[in-house]
Every structure is written in structure tokens, then in C-alpha cells.
Amino acid sequence: MIDIYLITGFLGAGKTTLMKNLIKGFENNKIAIIVNEFGKEGVDGKLLEKKGMVIEEINNGSIFCVCRSDMFVDAILKARELDIEYIIVEGSGLADPFGMPKIMNILEKLSPQEFHYSGSICVVDSKNFYKVYETAVAIKHQVQGADLIVINKVDLAESEEIEEIEKTIKELNHHAYIIRTSYSKIDDFDYVYKLQWYKPDMKGILIKKTLGISKYILKFETVDIDELKDWLKDWSKEVYRVKGFCKIKDVCHFIEAVQDQIHIEKMDEEQKENFLVVLGPNKDVIKEKIKSSWSEKFGTAIDII
What is the pTM of this model? Predict the structure, then answer.
């Protein structure tokens, strides 16, 4: 049977970095990857593409929503034809793992005894966990539905903060293993190999509507890297995550901002245009602040879609 792993975690927690580390851990196995992003423009797929194993990107909606679940099932069935051993699924920042049992039931009807759900690995951002915990229902569901919980970015948080987060997690989920990491690096892969899905009692799960999310795609001309950082600092704390690509001095760079943490690194592959995907609270005022901040700093136009 083909083992399926689901990776969850709120926006900017470190899911894609964990995916890269899992790929290394499974380097002696045949694996396939399915990437689900909330925005229209896919970023994570491009970051993992160079590994040569991304078989499907499902964008602009959750794989557990009616509008995307058929695509998710089709992608899994497609992977079966590639003679693989494992499927690793990176859910969107709002993915609800409690949708996975329904997907597995569908797969069992379409392709009996061919797929096994190993469980969910949830990545938690220890630096920003409580900033969105009370409003983002998705975080609670991701923690409650996890079989392994990775408390990430522990190098950026105080030990007291991490202890408090772990206490909160245990109140939500008493069965999952909990490990602490920096850069989503799992040192002992037995936690993954031996992962077992704990079927939840759905009667104890309070289903609520997830928080509203604004999605903006920013397109702009090439700018100086230091000025780009300063511009992001002006407003990135007011959104959940910024992610995309920018060509600087003819070299493609990956850009990511989570709160006040801004990360920029060079990429090997070619990127034809600059774009950033912004996910934040459902407030038009953020869109206006991005536009005015750009105009003030660069004096040129920026397209916000």
C-alpha cells in the first residue's frame, strides 16, 4: 500500500521547509508530492520543483473543499501510476486535517487496499503562535488532528514561551508526539516512519467557520534588495504571510515575510516576473497601506490583483 502523509500548519509556520527535509529523509524511496496553496499563484511548488518529484499543484482553495477535493483525489490516483511508495501532501495554511477521513473513504471505494493514511504532521510557529491562535480556527483543528506536532522556530522564542505553547497543544491534543525544531529539521526520522493515524472522535471537535482571508498578488518592477526589505517591514506585521519571487541584479530571489521575520535567498531557476502573494486579514485597509507604502518608497506603480 502507498503511505500518505499530510503536512499542516498555519501560514509561515515552516511547512515547505519541512517538506524539503522530508524529501531528504525519504531519498532512498520513491515519493510523490502534492502541494496545495491558498492563493492563485503557486510558490511552494516552484521551490520543490527542482527535486523533480512534484506531481500536482492544487491552488486557490483547500484540497478538502468541495471545489478542490476531486482534484485532490485525482492527483493521488495519478501518483499511484508512478510506482511510488509514499505521497507527501503539503496542505494550505488553512487546511483542516479532519477532511482527510472523507478523502480516504473515497479512495478506498475507487481503489481498494491501495492507500494507507499514515497521519498528519502539524508545524507550529513558536514565535507567532499566540498572535493568531484565538482567531484562526484552522490552527486549533490542525493541532487537534495531528499525530506528530513540530514546534518550529524554537531558536526565535523564549523557553517560557515554548513551554506555554506545548501546554496549550497538550490541552488540545493529548495523543500526538511533540518535538521541537529549528528550520523544521527532524533529527530522529523514526517519528515519521512510525507515525500512526489516530482516528479522532468527531463528536469532540467543534467545527467553526475559519477566519476570513484576503489574497493579494503584487506585481512590480525590479528594485534594490535593501529597499525591498525596508518596504516589507512597513506593513508585513499586519498580514499573515508574504511569499514570492523577485529578480534582483538579474538573479532570481525567493522572498518570504512572516511578521517581522524577512527571508530572502537566491534561487537557481529562472523566474520571468516579480510577484508576491500576500495573505492577511480580510481588511481593505491593508491593500491601501501596501499601495501607499510602495508609492512613497519607490515612486512607481505597483499592480495589486
Answer: 0.79
